[in-house]
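Issue 218. Parser rejects a valid record. Input:
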Amino acid sequence: MFQIPVFLSRQKTEVMKTSFHEAILWEPLPEKSVRCHACAHRCEIRVGQFGICGTRKNVGGALFTNVYERPLAVQSDPIEKKPLFHFLPGTRALSLGTAGCNFHCTFCQNDDISQLRGEAVYGYDTSCRQLVNGAVEKGCGSIAYTYNEPVVFIEFVLDTAKLAHRAGLKNVYISNGFETEETFALLTGNIDAMNIDLKAFTERFYKTLCKGLLQPVLENIRRAVALGIWVEVTTLLIPGENDSEAEIREIARFIASVSSDIPWHISRFFPAYKMTSKPLTHLSVIQRASEIGYEEGLHYVYTGNVPFESNTTRCPHCGEELIVRHAYRLGKMKVENGCCPRCGTKIAGVF
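Output the parser choked on:
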């Protein structure tokens, strides 16, 4: 699926019981059950069973992970592909993901890795140090934890992130936003930027199409901003599910209520996984959603996977073109010391 860099072993290794790595963020329960506190499901897991994510297993009354240092996808990407448009624009991120996910989205575009579960999980032999060294060698500015939900490999994330910081790299975390407060306590100081999916604004959508909940996602967007992590938000608009003008306006209004400076990325739906009978999102819906974002007070709204140009960053005060992008390639960039050179307005982000 994804290119595996030469600094990783190309030999896939089946993950056996002996290769499990002890997990963090769990507590023992009676009869050797455990409760996982990594994500908001807070799974109660009996001996021999996996949690909802399919990667965290109760082995003899203790919680273990079977994806530690076993990525399934590793690739050097433009940071804009995450998508992060206001965090180190024009740089590259060494992007990695494993098997498993705590959501079961029927429209997942990476289902071939995210929906792997239990004993079927495998990965490439590597180490946190090897990944960091590879990122430095390739001239990356950051490491991105992405492709599947990073909270399911939180131990791998944290150990890699600490080494990355020591090597002068930043860490970016691409998430569905379903972490616990305990997880955020560990991310703080280790993760520099996040893109959080706000998939819809109804519990119905989250429960039926993702097997999750909306409220923890809203809380975590607020939490990440309050903790000083740079945050951008992405919404995939699916015809007939979350693309009404009323719901789009609710999403935009919520983001603006947290901060008008949060960039909002609006994506077009393409049929995938179990949702292959839906049509593509009409371009007029994408364009109208962008207009609504600005109407609700957002300063930066982007439409990423559509044919018309809408990825230029403009000064929210004077309208000056500051960063011009062509798909994921950076054209001109005129931000000077974090400000618009024409009027001096501070441009939100990390430049």
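Fixed in the parser; the record now loads. Residues 73-311 form a domain with the TIM Barrel fold (CATH 3.20.20.70).
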